[in-house]
Fold this protein.
Amino acid sequence: MMKIDIASRVDHTLLKMGVSKEVLNKFVSEGVKYMVRGLVVSPYNVSYVREFLKHMNYSNIRLVSVVSFPLGETFLDVKLREINKLCEIGIDDIDIVTNVSNLINSEFDKFREEVESIVEYAKNVCKRDTILKLIVEVTLLNKQQLERAIDIVNEFRPDYLKTSTGYGPRGVNKEDVVFIRSRLDPSIKIKVSGGIRSYHQALELIKAGAEIIGSSRGVDIIKEALEYEEKT
C-alpha cells in the first residue's frame, strides 16, 4: 500500500490533558507535513487548530473533535449541546461516545433512544457534509451486546461506527473489525482506534474492513509505511 493511501486514512489524534501550545503546534505541523486525513483534538482546541491551519494556508485536513469523551456517561441533552457547539464553531467530523452501560445492562431501548436522538439532531444542526461517528466501546461488550449495538446503529445510519476510545481494557483487533463489518450496513463505514501503533497493524485492520485509523501515533504509522516502501 502506497504512503498516500495510508495517510489519507489516518486521523492523527491528540486527546490528553495539559497540552501546551508548543505540543499542539508540532502536532498540527506534522499532520500537514504527512498529509493525514484528519486532526483529532479536544473541543477546547478546535478553534485554535483551525486558525493555525488557516495561518499555514492549508485546508485539506479535516478537523475532528469529540463529544462526551472518553466515558460517554453523561446526559443526552448535554451531548446534544456539545454537538451544537462544535457545529457552531465549525467542525468537519464529530466522534461521539455512546453510553455503553445501557448495552451492558441490557437497556437497549435507552441505547436506541440515544443513538436516534444524536443522529437526528446532528443532521439538523450541522452542515450537510459534517461526518458523524458513533463510538461503541467494543472492547467492553460481549458478542450479543455488540450485535444489538450494531443493529441499532444500522437503524439510524451515522456515517461511521467507531470501535473504541482507546480507554478500554484492550486494543482493537482484526476479529473485532471482521465481525462488525459482517453485520454492519454496507453504507456505514468503520473507524478503528485503540492501541494501533504500527503500519502493519493498521494495514491488517484496513484489510479487515476499516476505513479510518484513529491513533495518537498516526504520523509514526505513516513514517513506518514510508520506510517499508523504500525497502520494497
Observations:
- The chain has one domain: 3-231.
